[in-house]
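Late entry, written up from scratch paper. The run itself happened at the end of the previous shift, but nothing got recorded in the book at the time, so transcribing now.
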Amino acid sequence: MWIWISRIVRSLVGVIALVIALALFMYLAKTREVAQHRDEALSLPVVRAVECVTRPIARQWTGYGTARAMEASDVAAEVAGAVVERPERLEAGVAVEKGDLLLRLDPSDYQDRVQSAQTRIASLEAQLSGLEVQEARLNEQADLLAAEKEIAERDLQRAKDALEKGAGNESQVDAKLQALKAVNRNRAAVLSQLEVIPSKRAETNASLESARADLRMAQQNLARTEIRAPFAGVLQRMDLQVGEWARVGDAVARVVDLSRIEVPLRLPQEAGSALKAGDEATLTVEGPATQTWAGAVSRLAPESDASIRSMTVFVEVRQQPDGSAGTLLRPGQFVMGRVVSRDVVERMVVPRHSVDVDTVLTVVSLGPNDPTPPTGASRPMIVQQADVNVVHYLEGRFDRVSPTETQWAVLIDRGISSSRALHAGDLVLVSNLESLRPGDLVDVRVEGDGVAASARGDGPTGDQP
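Output as recorded:
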């Protein structure tokens, strides 16, 4: 029985609670405040746009390369010898002038060779002088013997005349004939000695020239014992110390001229048809401390690399080696180079990030069939899509188009239908690009608005491409 009573009590409690809850709900429903409906206009998304303009554009190319010194030398020993002197100040990183002494080798052996060559030359010159004296004496003897021959011939003729007249005898004629023959023999001997003088002189002169060549070589080798800087530059290294032996051809130091640096840049093949020697270039080393250097194209490689469709352009940078060490372009640095052609053409430009797979989003004024914009929009316009043909990209500033953009796409209208083509003066969206679609209504803010006439070329722009 108590079980049934307990069940009845619990049921009554549940029913009472339900009735109380229902009554509370009805009370709250009757006393709640009714919200008033307000027909508020939805606001349009505010977007930024720039005007598509035509500009004289200089074509730019970007490539990479490793800097190298246009003048660098591994100074080698031209003679062998022990190092006897090395200036104390010479260490890696020290600047040297052309002709500065780097090392001095032991000169004693080369001094002896110079002395030996000089002695030989003196001996040969003395021999030449002796030949001159000998030739003069032989000429004098030849002249005397010629006179004696004339006398002997006259004496012989008188003896013959006297014999024919009966006043002489044959023994006198024979004596005169023997005297004439003796004179002829002596004269022939003298003339024979004179004949060999020129050959002896020639032989001695040849020996003298050889000795002089040996002397010049010995003097050069003696001078080569002083190893000097071939040009002004900075020491990269010094390889020998005092007391060490230098062999012929061994590198003893390396000197680098930092005033002229060359960078071979790898650029696309089409750069070869537009670039010329003298075109401006800017080199940049990427990193936390970005540094740039101005240079110019010095020459172009005659051949292209067909495998990677590139060519090499050589950029030369001139700098002052005595400037700040942190601002110098050094050989071995890997740099990015931007080369600008001097030839310019009129091209349309738009911000690079506004281009999506050869299309851009533009905005145009609302037409009679377009939706009515909500109140409060300052410049309501409708989004459309236009096709573009990007010929190349460039980095620069067009402040009157957009003071914030630095990366631009350069366009040509070749191969695009006129109905879908982008035209100069069109407004190109540069914000909210991911969320907008053609047909959307937007509230437009044009960058550079108020100077659009100048941007179209009606006045000076001050742009810096």
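Residues 72-108+232-252 form one domain.
(Scratch paper discarded after transcription.)
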